[in-house]
UniProtKB/TrEMBL annotation, chain A:
Taxonomic source organism: Alkalicoccus urumqiensis
Protein name per its UniProtKB record: Beta sliding clamp
GO biological process, one term: DNA strand elongation involved in DNA replication
Function: Confers DNA tethering and processivity to DNA polymerases and other proteins. Acts as a clamp, forming a ring around DNA (a reaction catalyzed by the clamp-loading complex) which diffuses in an ATP-independent manner freely and bidirectionally along dsDNA. Initially characterized for its ability to contact the catalytic subunit of DNA polymerase III (Pol III), a complex, multichain enzyme responsible for most of the replicative synthesis in bacteria; Pol III exhibits 3'-5' exonuclease proofreading activity.
Pfam families: DNA_pol3_beta (PF00712), DNA_pol3_beta_2 (PF02767), DNA_pol3_beta_3 (PF02768)
Subcellular location(s) of the protein: Cytoplasm
Highest taxon of the lineage: Bacteria
UniProtKB/TrEMBL annotation, chain B:
Organism: Alkalicoccus urumqiensis
Subcellular location: Cytoplasm
Reaction(s) the record says it catalyses: DNA(n) + a 2'-deoxyribonucleoside 5'-triphosphate = DNA(n+1) + diphosphate
Family, as annotated: Belongs to the DNA polymerase type-Y family.
InterPro entries registered for this protein in UniProt: DNA/RNA_pol_sf (IPR043502), DNA_pol_Y-fam_lit_finger_sf (IPR036775), DNA_pol_Y-fam_little_finger (IPR017961), DNA_polymerase-Y (IPR050116), DNApol_IV (IPR022880), PolY_HhH_motif (IPR024728), Rev_trsase/Diguanyl_cyclase (IPR043128), UmuC (IPR001126)
Name of the protein in question: DNA polymerase IV
Length: 378, 392
């Protein structure tokens, strides 16, 4: 194997596949990056038990020449050293030459490294993705779906299934749901031409989707998604992203959404967020407790207390108010998290009493919903 | 704090005395309370004075006690009964003054300043009534402060009444070895000895600044106590102003199996629930204490999902801690403590989206209860308990 490659392109793709490489891999060879040179380009592969990423660097990309391949071949190099070395090399191009002892010579300008490689045949093959449900998503939509749900997954290992995001597809609509059992985020998206693809209980680790979102190129138009029994494959032009699915049944969440409400309000998202953020400065304990009270038809009061420190009182004017008076406590940080991903001027909130979960959604759209549990004082 | 009168009431070999009171056949006989009496493998936790006179020295293996005292009678402990009697004993003390500070299941302080010179007579009356009504012996110390009162009650057992004045310190306390001072344990005594301080008199004669340098605040305290000074008030709330509520139990025999530990843990979790509910507090965390047969002690704690006063979360968390941290070595003592306490009305819980309906029910019930109590007077209506489970 021998090729010369544009260093910046190489660095970027190495960083992408490194997202799948864990320093505590179960198989020692999985701490490495597999590099394969073909006649028409290079593939880089990184993998751990959860995620596998394969990036393809085409020899020619439009008018640009990325790689000049002299001899095809393959090797596995320690990701930890390799990534840092390539990043720090002095020139804009890098030459890699593999000798028959699996030693890889890396040259750039006046610099030369010799890295011991491992046999690429020892690197586990990416799992074959058998036939599964297939559909296509716009890249920006996929990123939005991830951003608007991934924050709500559970980080505790007590209920592992909740560390994932549930995907379900029905009548050309993809519904993404995440909850840590104190708050829940739901985002729905129309998927045209998904044909008769339908599935449920596809639970993708939240971490997988967050990593995917980081490496998906904005210039990319669409991503093909294939869902099988135990894995999901995202395929962009020069990228394959494979994640395992979580085992187990995701809890039923649809019936958790209250269908009736006692108090409905509409408030400007920015003001609400700023008021809660300030209230959180004096909130006590791990629950980030903030209290909300309706003063009259167009004014809300938000308060928070830490007995030894002090108290904060915020007033927020609301655009609309209907129903019963309101007095409720909740985790302010959870509301902030949701407000950050609601890209709307106004939010509508529906309450069903101080001891019941309440709903928040963008006032002008209904494809997104956030559910929160209140805090009880006893 | 001039002119106070403090009493220390100390029940004499409490567990053994309760057993004798309940079973006249045991009276005046050498009696030992030990777990696993039948198997002869247990450890004597308490012994009657008759048994002590014949050489039984708790804590001691039962077989050894039997060897020194062949006619020793043995009973297994009944902790629920002891707690009940303890409650009655404190109830009786409260008839004399509201200023009763319980220290443990079998001892407490009373502030009897108002009694003036009648204090020794009142002490005699208390001792007589406890003997007549509960059939239990106790020793009482009467002194101007807690430290001297406790020292006094220790001087004559059983059934002693000892009046200790501050001026007695020199003659009665100073000749005693340091170890005899309450609050000085083996380690501290050793350290004192290294500085050539062997008697309480040595401490009294030492430079208080030197003591403070070597022992910190407790050095200063030792000095004050050696001079018979102690300005701690008798505080009925003292037991309430705590950062934790806990129970520990010396096992009747060293346990090496989880099955032997879990029932003890569960029973202590029940008592924990009762005490926390009585004090209107919730614990935010649980701490497990494991003392091994070689006396090495580990304490491990974990936070609860939300502040709680129910035995179940205590037990479950205690069990998890046990499973995670028990080394497998024989265990002598096990303890469970509710930590990071919050008062009622200050506890907060973020409801669970999957199970909030349970909380709604509790909330509705409590609202109803509060409403009824407001109308009928506080305490008119309370929640019931199922006797067997200890759970509401």
């Amino acid at each position: 194997m021998k090729f010369t490659i544009q260093r910046d392109v190489f660095v970027q793709n190495i960083q992408h596949v490194s997202k799948a490489i864990s320093s505590r891999a179960t198989l020692p060879i999985l701490t490495g990056i597999k590099i394969v040179a073909f006649d028409d380009g290079i593939t880089l592969t990184g993998s751990d038990s959860d995620i596998s990423i394969e990036a393809f660097i085409p020899a020619e990309d439009g008018d640009n020449s990325n790689v000049d391949i002299e001899r095809p071949g393959a090797v596995v190099l320690q990701a930890k050293y390799f990534a840092d070395i390539i990043k720090k090399l002095p020139e804009s191009t890098v030459e890699l030459t593999l000798n028959d002892q699996m030693v890889t010579k890396i040259r750039s300008g006046s610099s030369e490294f010799n890295l011991n490689g491992q046999d690429p045949d020892d690197f586990p093959r990416l799992p074959e993705v058998e036939e599964g449900s297939q559909f296509t998503l716009k890249t920006d939509l996929l990123k939005a779906l991830i951003k608007q749900t991934a924050f709500a997954v559970s980080t505790a290992e007590t209920r592992p299934i909740l560390t994932g995001i549930h995907w379900g597809m029905e009548s050309e609509k993809l519904m993404c749901t995440a909850t840590d059992s104190h708050r829940l985020a739901m985002r729905e998206a129309g998927v045209e031409e998904s044909g008769d693809v339908e599935f449920t209980n596809v639970v993708i680790p939240g971490k997988s989707l967050t990593e995917l979102s980081k490496i998906l190129d904005d210039s990319e138009e669409t991503v093909d998604v294939t869902v099988t029994d135990n894995q999901v494959l995202f395929k962009a032009t020069n990228l394959l992203f494979l994640s395992r699915l979580l085992d187990g049944n995701y809890p039923a969440t649809k019936n958790m959404i209250p269908s009736q409400s006692k108090t409905n309000i509409q408030v400007p998202a920015k003001q609400l967020m700023a008021a809660i953020e300030r209230a959180l400065l004096l909130s006590d304990g791990k629950n980030n407790v903030v209290n909300l009270k309706s003063l009259n038809e167009n004014e809300l009061e938000i308060t928070s207390v830490t007995p030894e420190v002090g108290k904060v009182t915020e007033s927020v004017s609301c655009d609309a108010f209907e129903g019963e008076e309101l007095r409720i406590s909740f985790n302010g940080k959870n509301i902030i998290d949701a407000l950050r991903v609601i890209e709307s001027q106004d939010v509508a909130i529906q309450f069903t009493g101080a001891m019941s979960p309440f709903i928040m959604r963008p006032a002008d759209r209904d494809y997104m919903l956030h559910l929160f549990s209140p805090v009880r004082t006893y | 704090m001039a002119g106070r009168i403090v009493m220390h009431v100390d029940m004499n070999s409490f567990y053994a005395s309760v057993e004798s009171a309940d079973d006249p056949a045991l009276q005046g006989k050498p009696l030992a309370i030990a777990g696993n009496a039948k198997k002869r493998k247990g450890i004597v936790v308490t012994a009657s004075y008759e048994a002590r006179r014949k050489g039984v020295k708790p804590p001691q293996p039962l077989w050894e006690a039997k060897k020194t005292c062949p006619d020793l009678l043995v009973r297994e402990p009944r902790f629920d009964r002891y707690r009940e009697i303890s409650r009655q004993m404190f109830q009786l003390l409260l008839e004399y003054t509201p200023l009763v500070e319980p220290v443990s299941i079998d001892e407490g302080y009373l502030d009897m300043t108002t009694a003036g010179i009648r204090a020794p007579d009142i002490a005699a009356s208390i001792q007589k009534r406890i003997m007549e009504e509960l059939k239990l012996p106790c020793s009482i110390g009467v002194a101007p402060n807690k430290f001297l009162a406790k020292t006094a009650s220790d001087m004559k057992k059983p059934l002693g009444i000892t009046v200790l004045r501050k001026r007695d310190t020199k003659t009665l306390l100073w000749p005693l070895p340091c170890r005899e001072m309450h609050g000085i344990g083996g380690k501290t005594a050793e350290k004192l000895a290294r500085h050539h301080l062997h008697t309480i008199g040595d401490i009294a004669a030492a430079d208080p600044d030197f003591l403070e340098r070597v022992f910190g605040v407790s050095g200063r305290r030792m000095y004050e106590r050696a001079h018979g000074n102690d300005d701690r008030p008798v505080d009925p709330e003292a037991a309430e102003q705590f950062k934790s509520v806990g129970h520990s139990r010396t096992l009747p025999k060293d346990a090496s199996a989880t099955e032997d530990i879990l029932p003890v843990l569960k029973e202590m979790a029940y008592s924990l629930e009762k005490r926390m509910k009585k004090k209107h507090v919730y614990a935010s965390g649980v701490q497990l204490t494991i003392r091994y047969a070689d006396w090495t002690t580990v304490q491990r704690s974990a936070r609860l999902q939300e502040p709680s006063s129910g035995w179940e979360p205590f037990y479950q968390m205690g069990r998890l801690l046990w499973e995670d941290y028990w080394s497998g070595a024989p265990v002598r003592l096990i303890g469970i403590t509710g930590i990071d306490l919050v008062e009622r009305g200050q506890a907060q819980k973020q409801l669970n989206l999957f199970s909030y309906k349970e909380d709604q029910e509790t909330y509705e019930k409590e609202k109803l209860l509060n409403e009824l109590n407001r109308q009928l007077g506080e305490g008119a209506v309370r929640r019931g308990y199922f006797k067997d489970s200890g759970y509401q």
